[in-house]
Amino acid sequence: MAGMSGTAAAPVLAQGLVRRFGDVVAVDGIDLEVREGEVFGFLGPNGAGKSTTVRMLTTLLRPTDGRAVVAGHDVVHEAAAVRRKIGVALQEAAIDPLMTGRELLRLQAILHGIDRPESRKREERLLDTVGLTAAADRRVGTYSGGMRRRLDLALALMHEPVVMFLDEPTTGLDPNSRLALWDEVRELNARGTTVFLTTQYMEEADRLAGRVAIIDEGRIVARGTPAELKARVGEPILRVLLPDGADPARAREILEGFGQDADGDGALAIHLKGGASRMGPVSRALDEAGVPVEGLELHQPTLDDVFHEATGRRLEGADEDQAEEAPRKGRRRGKA
After folding, report:
1. Do residues 239 and 323 share a domain?
2. How many structural domains does the chain have?
3. pTM confidence score
4. Is residue 3 situated within a structural domain?
């Protein structure tokens, strides 16, 4: 595509993409390149411009400025060709509650010109893939929120798209439904489909995406693999919890040998060089110095920390992710 950088075969390419609504600039000149076969995470708080970007890339909204190519076609001048090659599952799926899941899949096949024998094969495979075989002949009005999201995913996959756009697919779902949908996304990607995933949940991006771009106020503020982005923030923070009567000055003196001071929200804390492998030596050094310790807490950098580093604010989905994550990961307390 003339005038655009990036790999010509990339499923999604955008350069200088802008969308204004009157005087409001919702998307402010972003560049994107999504590689074939990857899950690309587009992370940011509500109102950051994620959904507006997806609507432009999927031809539902015309860019004010800039250009984008999806599945090899210009989103403005070849919109019909783009639509034939993509699948789209938006936040609010418009699904007829009076039809059954199977009927909706058959209707989708008809709309895409898929013949009946092939439609039947895909219908059964997709129902099995999203775990809805047993509910296929029930009216969609009886489905839970998670079942509706999975059906919407199956509908978007009926014509075997080159790129799948998932716009905040787990918003509003309970934790179990969210995990189930993550499994469906992984399976979809394992079969070779490129996935463009927008989310406000940092853990969702961390678990699913090979690369992420973080958007805030219409601009991309960070991009790279989750590991790369978190590494830029710095070493993990070790909080040292002292019991009443312990000498914080002596504890701080010992900790100076293991890393620089950090913000510990009221507790002694350092940026721990070497990460978790150094917790044992820290504990032993404090013990040998006669400093009693109530607990040690290691905070690994997260994508929320990346967002905070870039913007000075926290992602809206961060607190919920951390609450769900804490019981699974646990915190190391006591002497290592």
Report:
1. yes
2. 2
3. 0.78
4. no
Q: Within 13 Å, how many C-alpha atoms sit on residue 98's CB side? A: 0
323 has pLDDT over 80: no
DSSP for residue 108: H
Domain at 97, CATH number: 3.40.50.300
Do 79 and 134 belong to one domain?
yes
- 110 with 238, same domain: the answer is no
Higher per-residue pLDDT: 304 or 9 = 304
Same domain, 177 and 274: no
Residue ranges making up the domain that contains 317: 230-329
Q: For residue range 66-125, what is the model confidence (pLDDT) as tens digits?
A: 999 999 999 999 999 999 999 998 876 678 899 999 999 999 999 999 999 999 999 998
Q: Residue 173: CB partners within 8 Å, gap ≥ 6?
A: 145, 146, 149, 181
Please report, for residues 79, 153, 158, 288, 325, the alpha-carbon distance to residue 161 in angstroms, rounded to integers and kept in the order given.
Answer: 15, 11, 8, 62, 33
Angle in degrees, CA 195, 90, 182, rounded to 5: 50
Cβ contact 196:29 at 8 Å = no
**Which tokens go with 11?**
């499923």
Once rounded to an integer, what is the mean pLDDT over residues 267-289?
90
